[in-house]
Amino acid sequence: MKTAVYPGSFDPVTYGHLDIIRRASRMFDTVIVAVMCNSAKTPLFTLDERVKMIRESVKDLDNVVIESFDGLLINYCKEKNIHIVVRGLRAITDFEYELQIAQTNRELSHNEVDTVFLTTNLKYSYLSSSVVKEIASYNGDITPCVPDFVAEELYNKYGHDRTK
């Protein structure tokens, strides 16, 4: 049985993330979406809020599990006996960064953890959580970027009432 982990901060989850999760769920028996508690970042949403939004977004996928973790990904992988990491690539700049991380994870795991890269669907190649947050902060339309309930949570965080 092949299990893969898709780690990230998902602050918030976007249609780009969800595309990668859905595609990975067809490739592996189980996909664990591991929401990171990253001390180097200051997230807009709490860890629990991010986990809840992803759970709601993938509730139709029986083989996807949502968890959170803190610390090194390779330690999480060792604890869960996972040998495959899934990462999405939007552009060549993502590749350079992700390749370095993949090589580091492989080395630190003593060649036990490999990374599988999935290229983003072209219609989501511009998406990032940072871009979505910036648009939402100015009360712009983020409905093409995130599920409706995520958009509502974002607008609420920025104090925008979209019901008017």
Automatic annotation (TrEMBL):
One of its GO terms (biological process) is coenzyme A biosynthetic process. Signal peptide: none annotated. Gene3D superfamilies: HUPs. It is found in: Cytoplasm. InterPro entries: Cyt_trans-like, PPAT, Rossmann-like_a/b/a_fold. It comes from the Bacteria. It is an enzyme of class 2 (transferase). One of its GO terms (cellular component) is cytoplasm. Its EC number is 2.7.7.3. SUPFAM superfamilies: Nucleotidylyl transferase (SSF52374). Residues 5-134 form the Cytidyltransferase-like domain. Substrate binds at S9, K41, L73, R87. Homohexamer. This is Phosphopantetheine adenylyltransferase. The gene is coaD.
